[in-house]
Amino acid sequence: MQKAVPYRPQLPPAAAASESSGPHALAAGDGHGGKFNGTKVNIQRMVMENPVIVFGRYGCCMCHVVTRLLLGLGVNPTLYEVLEEDEAALVGELSRMVGHNDNNGSNNLQFPTVFVGGRLFGGLDKVMATHISGELVPILREAGALWL
């Protein structure tokens, strides 16, 4: 049986040195990334640099389910957690990045939001549906998240 590698929330280098535990939050930024514990974070760069990244609310059980499913498949996803009060800023940034703003200003994105290979993959429903249909593993291989 394979031993799963425990996941760690994404921490920028400066924040990792100054903070050993606690919630990881995104505050409202200028559209090029938010402030992450006083350090600038570029969300688009994070999405492009990681084969699989899960954005979710801190302590969300559905984010935990998606992360555990991916870990069980042999993927080590990057997990980016945000506090509930900073959720709107992150959803707005992700929506601008993928172009999902409605005319009335509401956003279609909900947590957990999964990006695979630098593109929006979907949420919990999409991940579970593709896993059940057997299409998830080939998609993860193509994105470079699985080697076998």
UniProtKB/TrEMBL annotation:
Keywords assigned by UniProt, alphabetized: Cytoplasm, Redox-active center
Compartment annotation: Cytoplasm
GO terms under cellular component: cytoplasm
Origin superkingdom: Eukaryota
Gene3D superfamilies per UniProt: Glutaredoxin (3.40.30.10)
UniProt xrefs under InterPro entries: GlrX-like_pln_2, Glutaredoxin, Thioredoxin-like_sf
Record bears the keyword Cytoplasm: yes
Ranges of Low complexity composition bias in the record: 13-25
Every Glutaredoxin domain range: 52-120
Ranges where the record places region Disordered: 1-33
Keyword check for Cytoplasm: yes
Family statement drawn from the similarity comment of this UniProt entry: Belongs to the glutaredoxin family. CC-type subfamily.
Protein name: Glutaredoxin-C9-like
Gene source species: Punica granatum
The organism's taxonomic lineage, starting at the top: Eukaryota, Viridiplantae, Streptophyta, Embryophyta, Tracheophyta
